[in-house]
Predict the 3D structure of the following.
Amino acid sequence: NAFVELVKPFGIREMARTGKVAMKREISSQEEE
């Protein structure tokens, strides 16, 4: 759901959630310190 909220400003009309997840979430910069 976070990805859907992220791409909303780009006008995505349709999205399919099938198969394996192809994207990993980036580690926040706070965890890198």
In short: The chain has a mean pLDDT of 70. The CA atoms of residues 4 and 15 lie 9 Å apart. The two ends are 27 Å apart (CA to CA).
